Amino acid sequence: DLLHWPQISKCRSPEMETFSCYWTAGNFYNLTAPRIIQLLYKKSNEEDWKECPDYITSGQNSCYFNASYTSVWTPYCVQLASKNEVYDKKCFSVDEIVLPDPPVHLNWTLLNTSQTGIHGDIQVRWDPPPTADVRKGWITLEYELQYKEVNETKWKELKPRLSTMVPLYSLKTARDYEIRIRSRQRTSEKFGEFSEILYVSFSQIGIGCDHCTEEVEFPWFLVVVFGVCGLAVTVISIMLSKQPRLKMLIFPPVPVPKIKGIDPDLLKKGKLDEVNSILACHDNYKTQLYNDDLWVEFIELDIEDPDEKNRASDTDRLLSEDHLKSHGCLGVKDDDSGRASCCEPDIPETDFSASDTCDATSDSDQFKKAAEKEEDLLCLDRQDNDESLPSLANTDPQRQHRNPQSENSHPWAAFADSVESPRPSVHTQISNQNSLTSTDFYAQVSDITPAGRVVLSPGQKSKLGRAQHEGCTEQNFTMDNTYFCEADVKKCIAVTSHEENEPHVQEQSYNEDGYFTTESLTTTVANFGASTAEPPSSEMPVADYTSIHIVHSPQGLVLNATALPVPDKEFNVSCGYVSTDQLNKIMP
Amino acid sequence: MSTKGAPLKGLLLVVLLVSHMLLTKEGVTSLPICPSGSVSCQLSLEELFDRAVKLSHYIHFLSSEMFNEFDERYAQGRGFIAKAVNSCHTASLTTPEDKEQAQQIHHEDLLNLILGVLRSWNDPLIHLASEVQRIKEAPETILSKAVEIEEQNKRLQEGMEKIVGRVHSGEVGNDIYTPWDGLPSLQLADEDSRLFAFYNLLHCLRRDSHKIDNYLKVLKCRLIHDNNC
């Protein structure tokens, strides 16, 4: 036999005016000399333990504290002890141990019966427990009613409620029911004891319908209704699923690395197109990108008169302020993700909602188109075997290219709004350039400093490009030809360390390396550094060409009035350097 | 996008609103009879008491739940309850401790006492809401309840001041108040001591909110229903 010590089983207050504690004596008593168990209590603000005032009223092994001993919100401690031994101890306050008595005077009345007489509604009424002073509001009770048919085992419960009456609907008149109710203090969790059971029998009041047939139980109606609903829902969902919107709503596209305005496919293909796209943030490019025809046309024109056309378009582009504005792409974007290639990394390729920078939908479309192009815009020349650099020269033949570009300037301008305003210096430069639109010039990057500065030399027709295919070292980086496409650069790099010759846009999405592999450029620059350390020529008005101080902001281009080739060794890898082509284009 | 998505968005919005309405806690979002800001509208005393009782019940309900959650999560096995012969900072206010005393106290005094207790909890509630965030891995539910209680406490005070203004024949006593100096204990470095301080505070909050709820019900039955609720 296990030895059970005396234990306080519970303390309870039925009405928050008195309370009682009960304990179990345990079998310890029998084994040894009978000991006297005492219950001692102490209020929180007292020092001494006092003995229970009433061992009798609540029964055996109990202690009753009447109203004069009870303070409701005062902490008490009680302990079960004999002479020198404490068996158990409990601390509580009276408001925590309220368990009301059961309700009394349960009765029921018939509300109505169904037409067939099979079912009936009744109203059950009761009184609150007499000990609880509900009238004066000292205690607020809520009641829970449970009922079941006489021969059932499981009770059905109703939600606890404050009122002392409740209707029960749709009871079967042929059956008898049992009802019981219990109560609890409103903010407590524990219920008191159940009341006595109330028996409900319809036959007693003469309404019983013993001979009534049972209703069909199978819920055909429900089956039909739910079937139709399910079908309707399925049909609707099928219909809706055709809408990409909904699909996107339910299954949002997984974000993939993307640059705003550039189709991720482009990235996959790893073409320079990407770069173009990014650059395409500028008006110029946009034009090109938008319009396949234009592009083709452009190409054709280039073949005819490459220099002229290129230059014109380039010039225009460079001159247009919108380039800069929309330069969100170009600008070094200070992207913590480290992917900060030039453009805003968020390209809504599937999501056609407008993205902030590099204007969304139309741009992305155009970008896509642009991306498709083999040639990168920057190195349009290349196709011509002439200038790899689309010159900024404005010539009339180029106007047509210009025009679309100017049209594009608007969307670009839209971007512009979203991106930071370009540096004033750039604008100045641009405006200057605008005035010089008619002049045939384009900026050639004579040098790229590792710091990301592009030294531009006066634009002249250059016979770059193809020549550069041979290899970096072989390239003749004179002032005239100091423009090199990114592709070329890459080729250079390929020669040195990388593999591909082709103007691939970085296959990666726009990450640090992405755009215009600054490393590659660095390499290239390193290669060229010595040879091409030509300062911007004095031929050009200084204002025309400046070294680009690439900044990290999306607008990125800050043009320094003084074009000094300062070979810094640090590149802004984060934004990468835009290929010189692009820079040129951007540059006024 | 706009045209196609709009009806869908509208539908979602409706669904959200409806579900919010259905899930709102009982007793708090009663429709105002008097639009706020209207000067001439006068709520009856009965209506004022009804709202006050609802608020006090809600506050006590939240306190209970918050205490239970805290108890479950942090107090198990730490023996707090054995130590919790706690004294609350409001213990210095002499409030009725049983039904007799509550019956005998004058209703104006009782109203002032209620207001005093509410005011004394302003400070602790503010700090409770901010300090509970520092508890390691405090559940969001506890935090949100703390914030909600603080807000409802203010509302209840406003309601009580209105009631006092209506019921009082004389001056509204502003002097019943107990300052709270328990903030350092909520910021103790030792986690056990800090948790015990929180336990105490929440225990006191539960107790005091129960007190206020009870007193208000007693007053309501006494003044409005003439002791015949």
Automatic annotation (TrEMBL), chain A:
Localisation per UniProt entry: Cell membrane; Secreted
Primary subcellular site in the record, as a coarse category: membrane
Domain Fibronectin type-III positions: 102-205
Biological process terms in GO annotation: endocytosis
Transmembrane annotation, as ranges: 218-240
Region (Disordered) residue spans: 386-410
Pfam families: EpoR_lig-bind, fn3, GHBP
Molecular function as annotated in GO: cytokine receptor activity
Annotated keywords: Cell membrane, Disulfide bond, Endocytosis, Glycoprotein, Membrane, Phosphoprotein, Receptor, Secreted, Signal, Transmembrane, Transmembrane helix
CDD domains: FN3
Source organism superkingdom: Eukaryota
Identification of the protein by name: Growth hormone receptor
Organism: Daphoenositta chrysoptera (varied sittella)
TrEMBL record, chain B:
GO molecular function: hormone activity
Domain of life: Eukaryota
GO biological processes: positive regulation of cell population proliferation; positive regulation of receptor signaling pathway via JAK-STAT; regulation of hormone levels; response to nutrient levels
Record bears the keyword Secreted: yes
Subcellular location: Secreted
CDD domains cross-referenced by the UniProt entry: prolactin_like
Signal peptide per UniProt: 1-30
Keywords: Disulfide bond, Hormone, Secreted, Signal
Gene3D superfamilies: 1.20.1250.10
PANTHER family: PROLACTIN, SOMATOTROPIN,PROLACTIN
Protein name: PRL protein
